[in-house]
Amino acid sequence: MFARWYESALRSKLAKPYVHLMFGARQTGKSTLIRKLLPAGTLEIDLADPSVRSRYLTEPERLIAECRRLPRRRGGAYVFVDEAQSVPAMFDAVQSLYDRDKRRWRFVLCGSSARKLRKTGANLLPGRSFLHHLFPLTLTERPPIPSGVSHAGSPLEFPWREKKPPTRRFPAADLETRLAFGELPGIAAAPEQDRHELLRAYAIVHLEEEIRREAMVKDWAAFLRFLRLAATESGQTLNYAAISHETGLSQPTVKSHYQLLEDMFIGFPIAAWSGSPRKHLLSTPRFLLFDLGLRHAAADLTPSRDVVRANPGPLFEQWVGIELWKRLQYLRTGTLHYLRTKDGAEVDFIIAREGALTPIEVKWTERPTPSDARHLLTFLREHPKTARHAYLICRCRLPMRLHDNVTALPWFCL
User: Fold this and answer.
1) Is residue 299 part of a domain?
2) How far apart are CA 399 and CA 389, in angstroms?
């Protein structure tokens, strides 16, 4: 059982007398982590099982009877409902039980999609629940090869919560491996020869099961065409018109499909930065799939090092963006942006956090030069009060000072 960064925080919060809601894409390790932390004797209801789901869809009130039969326990009897979004009425049953006795039960509800809950106006227990999210592995959870330089600093520090890193971490990986197969826990722990088949099954079988289960998409073939294009264009600015033309879907349907990817936690937008004095800024968001291994499989590519070597720069940039996004989601403070002008000037990522701005460029190079930092320096000059230092993430072997206010960092120091 490998350690997760969010584990200690979740353990302490589960002891508190509230309902706990955990969301995240499938295969990010939500159920595994929850089962690791819950005590023996927990009542577990797995709504991913069709027969179990059918019973609760017809009789959601049966949860009340089952919970009342549980013996009273010091600290409360734990009840774990997996894939809870499949039966939205379960949330009402949980509220009924919780409001009658806030300490008799400890409810943990886990889900991989918010679409059905949002569309049905499901009761998410406001004022009664803690909300948790779990994402693919971060660089902290899966050690780099080579190992990082501890004194290098980072544009967004993300150390373990514990004083000492846990001994049982996921197998270490080099950059090419990460760009080829992504950071899903099950993929990282699997033999390399099996990873491409597992990712292909995830991209097709799991998504199809999830989408059809909740009746989200009527035309599955058209959605697959959309998904392939969205994966191919991952990391680029959104172009609804172009994808509409390529897939034969209307622009409102294309927008709805992008929202579906967000609701299923397998994609996210990066907003354009608007607080610049420069004119002619692009305002359309960029959109990234949440994992590069899934991105390759969904784009109908075989996840492999050959895919990386064909065009590594854009994949490296996406990996950095996904890593920064995961950290900001866990830290629950700050937002991620990008800046691009119509004449081509750009800053790949901008972290806005606690009143400060941190611009970041990503380059595939092993030998960065001051000229690689010219857009970063322009941004620093335009925001002298809020942006004090910039970073260039690359493949150099050691941190390098490119300018008084610009540091080139090896990827493993991120």
Assistant:
1) yes
2) 14
